[in-house]
């Protein structure tokens, strides 16, 4: 378990992390989300004792990180896959970590096999691709067989097979009762992996809730309807006190989860339905809705008058 209490970090006048309090519990995958500059990396560094908090506290299974004997056996982390001596082989990089934490040499071969790097174990890390570097970083996190694992952008550089592998790995680790804390900008992956979300913006806690509750609270749910008997269905729904929104494409929308009731009313009136589907926003849409006021860097798509950066023959395709 990771317990964060009142965590604050200031750099001069800038407050990077502002009074954060949350708990990362075992048995589930907890996603850590926030826009660029929200303070995610700073928070994770403070969890590992790499940055000293201005105020507040972090406990790893009830103890401060610097009080842990052989810390890799308590918590494994991937924060920067490039933090490897390029002149060392994958094997010797992991062996160095193992020897410094009292971990048996045999464990090095086990984690190399787990992450799929056995064939390149003796190759120098400087020749590794981004994806291979990620796998080596994950191997380092797994090395001490810890009860707590923390990953920052773990799918960065991985191919589809690798992404599928790390997703299942994190789920299996949580299923074993371990604490899994993962930060990522890939909302589609987070939606498939995380059970619980901690969301921050401008250093402040915005949400600490389940995935399902987060999406429900920060998005619009509605029922989408298509029918060749639109006017008749509008009359039936109006009589039933159901408010309908008509879109320009001829589709009808009803806010809330009333699909069963709408279907029953249509059947009673013998109205043909071509579509009756509940709609729910994606995690990305819910995240954008919640964090809209916390984005530090805003890009603009408007092209300045008179400029045409793609050339005269560009057609927007």
Describe the structure.
The strands form three sheets. A six-stranded mixed β-sheet has the order 5-6-7-3-8-9, sandwiched between helices. With 317 residues, the chain is an alpha/beta fold. Strand 1 and strand 2 form a beta hairpin. It has helices at residues 40-47, 90-100, 106-115, 130-142, 160-175, 187-193, 211-217, 230-239, 259-268, 283-291, and strands at residues 2-11, 14-24, 29-33, 55-60, 75-78, 148-152, 179-183, 196-201, 204-210, 222-226, 245-246, 252-255, 275-279. The chain starts with a strand and ends in a 26-residue tail after the last helix. Helix content is 32%, strand content 24%. The chain contains ten helices and 13 strands.
In short:
With 317 residues, the protein is an alpha/beta fold.
Please write out the topology.
Elements lengths: L1 E10 L2 E11 L4 E5 L6 H8 L7 E6 L14 E4 L11 H11 L5 H10 L14 H13 L5 E5 L7 H16 L3 E5 L3 H7 L2 E6 L2 E7 H7 L4 E5 L3 H10 L5 E2 L5 E4 L3 H10 L6 E5 L3 H9 L26
Helix pairs in contact: 2-3, 3-4, 7-10
Relevant terms:
single chain; alpha/beta; 13 strands; elongated
Give start-end ranges of low-pLDDT stretches: 307-317
Q: How widely separated are the two ends? A: 50 Å
Strand content: 15-25%
Provide the spatial order of strands within the biggest beta sheet: 5-6-7-3-8-9
Sequence of secondary-structure elements: EEEHEEHHHEHEHEEHEHEEHEH
C-alpha Rg (nearest Å): 25 Å
Q: What proportion of the residues is helical, as a percent range?
A: 25-40%
Largest sheet: 6 strands, mixed
User: What structural category do the secondary elements indicate?
Assistant: alpha/beta
| Total count of helical runs of at least 4 residues | 10
Mean pLDDT figure? 87
* DSSP summary, beta strand count: 13
**Overall body shape:** elongated
């Amino acid at each position: 378990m990771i317990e964060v209490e009142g965590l604050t970090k200031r750099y001069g006048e800038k407050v990077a992390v502002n009074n954060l309090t949350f708990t990362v519990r075992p048995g589930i995958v907890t996603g850590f989300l926030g826009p660029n500059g929200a303070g995610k990396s700073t928070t994770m560094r403070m969890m590992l004792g790499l940055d000293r908090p201005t105020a507040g506290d972090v406990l790893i299974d009830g103890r401060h990180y610097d009080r842990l004997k052989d810390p890799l056996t308590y918590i494994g982390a991937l924060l920067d896959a490039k933090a490897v001596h390029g002149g060392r082989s994958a094997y010797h990089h992991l062996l160095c970590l193992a020897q410094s934490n009292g971990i048996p040499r045999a464990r090095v071969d086990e984690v190399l096999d787990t992450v799929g790097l056995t064939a390149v174990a003796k190759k120098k890390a400087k020749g590794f691709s981004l994806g291979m570097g990620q796998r080596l970083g994950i191997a380092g996190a797994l090395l001490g067989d810890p009860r707590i694992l923390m990953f920052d952008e773990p799918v960065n550089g991985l191919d589809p097979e690798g992404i599928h592998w790390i997703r299942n790995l994190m789920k299996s680790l949580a299923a074993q009762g371990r604490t899994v804390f993962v930060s990522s900008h890939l909302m589609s992956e987070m939606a498939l992996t995380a059970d619980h979300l901690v969301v921050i913006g401008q250093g402040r806690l915005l949400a600490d809730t389940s995935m399902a509750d987060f999406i429900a609270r920060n998005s619009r749910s509605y029922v989408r309807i298509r029918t060749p008997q639109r006017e008749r269905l509008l009359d039936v729904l109006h009589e039933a006190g159901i408010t309908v929104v008509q879109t320009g494409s001829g589709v009808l929308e009803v806010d809330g989860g009333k699909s069963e009731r709408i279907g029953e009313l249509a059947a009673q009136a013998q109205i043909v339905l071509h579509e009756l589907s509940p709609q729910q926003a994606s995690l990305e849409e819910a995240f954008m809705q919640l964090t809209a006021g916390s984005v530090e860097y805003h890009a603009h798509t408007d092209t300045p008058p008179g400029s045409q950066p793609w050339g005269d023959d560009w057609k927007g395709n």
